[in-house]
Amino acid sequence: MSAPGLAELLERAEALYLDYRLGAVKEWKQRTGGLAIGYMPIYAPRELLHAQGVLPVGLMGGRDDLEIIKGDAYYQSYICHIPRSTIELGLNGSLDALDGMLFPAICDVIRNLSGIWQMQFPDKLSHYLDLPQDFDPEMGGKFYRQDLEHLSELLVQRGARPLTAEALAHSIELYNAERREVQALYELRRLQPWKVPTHELYLVLRAALVLPVEESTAMFRQYHEAVAADQARKPVDQARVVLTGSFCEQPPLGLIKTLERAGCSIVDDDFVQVHRFIRSDIPASDDPLGALVNAFLTDGMASPTRYVDRGRKGDELVQRTKACGAEGLLFCAPSFCDPALLDQPMLVRAVEAEGVPWTAFKYSENSGQFQVIREQAGTFADSIKLWSNA
Amino acid sequence: MSTIPEKLITAGIDVGSAAIKVAIVETTGRALEVNSIASERMLAGASERTRRRDALAVAEGLFDEQLRVAGLTRGDLAYAATTGEGEALPFRTGHFYGMTTHARGGLFLEPDARAVIDIGALHTRAVRMDEKAKVASYRMTSQCASGSGQFLENIARYLGVTLEEIGTLSQQADKPEACSSICAVLAETDVINMVSRGIGIPNILKGIHQSMAGRYLKLLVAAGVRGVVLVTGGLAADTGMMTAMQETAAEQKAALDVRCHPQSVLAGALGAALWGGFRVRRLAEKGTPLPMLVA
After folding, report:
1. How many angstroms separate the CA of residue B280 from the nearest CA in chain A?
2. How many domains does chain B have?
3. Cross-chain Cβ contact B291/A236 below 8 Å
4. What secondary structure, in 3-state letters, does chain B show?
5. A173-198: per-residue pLDDT in tens?
6. Which residues 70-99 on chain B approach chain A with CB closer than 8 angstroms?
7. What pTM did the predictor assign?
8. Is residue B123 domain-shared with residue B59, that is, in the same domain?
9. Of A33, A383, B133, B273, which has the highest C-beta tally within 10 A?
10. Range of B159's domain?
């Protein structure tokens, strides 16, 4: 017997996740008259958008139910899948509710996508968010601040309200609260993974991408309370694993379920990273824009999209693995994902040096068959449970 | 280090695509040992065909029935391990993958075995293992149905014989008729032609058995198997298949000793139960709390 409201919450989360046409965003726009701006994965300054009355809308490509008709014409076969599905959704009208798009600096492919977007949708805002790779406040900090100020002006030109320090400080507080809720869910999953199956958590994380932060925070809290109280969820003997590499193009939900069914309890992951990219609260400040910039410079995750000094990414992954009591690592990256796959050998060296068992496989967002991965993950989980000394 | 239990009773539930298998085992001894015949015994075990019923309901019914046969309750179990398609059984303590469990069950039934060939309704897997049932390599049939028990069941239906009759009839063959080993559709066409040409049922069945046995031997060779091989899975009960495999191995001078055991069909469930006990002892050795069985 599940906790009251949990089934309904998950049903709604799944509906939001499945809705390519962004019905919730359309409703929000009708209700508020505000702008809605889409952003690609990993990180976006959602606090700034919110402070100007704009709804930030996270986009994470398509699934296996999206037929790519036009999108393939823009990218060669050796490019990952997410830009194709994003273009397809743009061209088939699914993203019409959006007034613009932000393209954070993820990789060359996403940068090229921003250029294609400008040509395909000249009437909409299309901004390449050139996130700094120099984390010196006097260099990268100034550069990023100028970019945010420029973005803020562009939003005003589209009808958003001007940015004020008070509004931004309030928005930062709201997103701090959301981050805390997400972190609390990750902590609950770390402690009691059977309470928080990753395929459920993932749906809630995805649903939150199209909701205003006030609603998403409440949804995270409601989900947390419901699963914590659900006495029907009992411990199962699974191998505890960290899943890494799935920060941009997302795996199909079926793949996450397959991994769990194959005997893996995912106790940390890279999914829908925007909710956790800034790792702690952004402190209150007289200069909230400066605080937002500083949080990106000093408190961002060691993502493959971010320059981190030699070796430290591997150290951080080992630290994450140990901190969550994981017994193994799944390198689960999209095919042709340069940031994930170029970092992988360095990360493998780091975890092997610590004796952490690992296995690696690739996917595409439209993958529909998981039998091979099921076998791989199943035997990996067995080897951990029966033979590993980790 | 916490105390490693002296005696453990564990269960294995193997949910296959055509049948459910359940085994209850008792293991004694504090050491983390594998393949210790003296300390392992099966208390109960049975197989039941699903026959279009809800597989999970059949599994739970058979599980409780076998507990009754052994004079036990769920509360007596230290671990209930699923395997096969049993990941969704709500009362499981944990799940082990099919290759891992067939290897372990195979070693329990035939301690000399260093490989098993699991012939199920939908797939066939050749698994090479070491003396501790650790999987060293494996090969699986592709998705084509001609290497599966389901294919044989379909042929039996066309020929109007029961599954139980297949083995005996096949062994009566005097002039087996060659059959396609590549494609189930072609093989079925072959069978229709044979019937229309008046070929007797024993010779048709033997031809099919030989065709399938040839595929299985290729799998075993590809997995690097030598020595004793135990046949497990549903088709282990087919004596005609066993004979065909032994004859084909001899004809091809393969360094394989193909064997079967009366309980071969339960190998997956037995392996799951045995690994469950091993896992409990391992967790105890590491001082980790034991997983709770969901009553």
Report:
1. 10
2. 2
3. yes
4. CCCCCCEEEEEEEEECCCEEEEEEEEEECCCCCCCCHHHEEEEEEEEEECCCCCHHHHHHHHHHHHHHHCCCCHHHCCEEEEEECHHHCCCCCEECCHHHHHHHHHHHHCCCCCEEEEECCCCEEEEEECCCCCEEEEEECCCCHHHCHHHHHHHHHHHCCCHHHHHHHHHCCCCCCCCCCCCHHHHHHHHHHHHHCCCCHHHHHHHHHHHHHHHHHHHHHHCCCCEEEEEECHHHHCHHHHHHHHHHHHHCCCCEEEECCCCHHHHHHHHHHHHHHHHHHHHHHHCCCCCCCCC
5. 999 999 999 999 999 999 999 999 99
6. 79, 87-88, 92-99
7. 0.89
8. no
9. B273
10. 111-260
